[in-house]
Design brief:
Helices cover 88% and strands 0% of the residues. It is mainly alpha-helical and 238 residues long. The N and C termini lie far apart (105 Å).
């Protein structure tokens, strides 16, 4: 509101100054046109500086509201595209890092299961510490993916709105470009999400395998202990 008032004040000042200059003497016709162009150019520059218009232009009398809206819509689609590309890159990279972390965890779990009964208590504890740390990293990566995905979804919605605004304002080219960028971003994210979904599936299978293997190992330990206790009981009866 303050910027608007300053712009009006500038305009009134320049208009008054122009009247004084024009009434002080009788200029020739071509000089009158020169002063008129100077007045409009000055008003355009000052209103831009006062915050009334964000679109730079030279000949304000040649620009209609429609053309200014189209220019503004094009600027919005450009900035929205930048936001979309940045959030898409961040989301894809976070998904890739999450997928790597999951596969690393799966490999550690398989290595541990394959070594059951062959490790010393210290070695087993050391591997478990590594597995616990890797599980924490998987959780952190998953949270990061969720955070970037939320931002990316918001960026897509913003781009869809910008594309619609560009289309209704007459900036068809900007609208088409914006929708193309949305489709490309969605396709890239979908491909990355397929990788993470596959990793999640393998992690779930690895957890089931871990439970089954640990149950078998515990059962074998109990059987071994039982076989050792039978002779002792038998000797006591004798």
């Amino acid at each position: 509101m303050a910027a608007f008032k300053r712009g009006i004040a500038y305009f009134v000042f320049l208009r008054s100054s122009a009247r004084v200059l024009l009434s002080s003497r009788k200029p020739e016709v071509h000089k009158l046109g020169k002063w008129t162009n100077l007045l409009y150019t000055s008003v355009a520059s000052l209103t831009v500086g006062a915050g009334l218009c964000a679109v730079p232009f030279k000949q304000v009398e040649n620009l209609s509201h429609d053309s200014l809206i189209r220019r503004a819509a094009s600027l919005v689609t450009d900035s929205s595209s930048t936001l979309l590309s940045q959030t898409t890159l961040a989301l894809i990279e976070s998904i890739v890092e999450y997928t790597k972390a999951v596969h690393t965890l799966i490999a550690l779990q398989k290595r541990y299961l394959a070594s059951l009964g062959k490790l010393t208590p210290a070695e087993e504890d050391s591997i478990w510490q590594v597995i616990i740390g890797q599980r924490a990293q998987v959780n952190d990566r998953h949270d990061e993916c969720s955070r970037f995905e939320s931002t990316w979804v918001s960026a897509v919605r913003l781009c869809e709105t910008a594309a619609e605004a560009a289309y209704t304002s007459g900036a068809e080219h900007a609208s088409i470009t914006m929708r193309t960028n949305i489709q490309v971003a969605q396709s890239q994210v979908e491909e990355a999400q397929k990788l993470s979904a596959n990793a999640d599936k393998k992690l779930a299978e690895a957890k089931v395998m871990e439970v089954e293997r640990m149950a078998q190992y515990s059962s074998s330990l109990e059987n071994d202990n039982g076989e050792e206790e039978i002779p002792e009981a038998y000797l006591r009866e004798d």
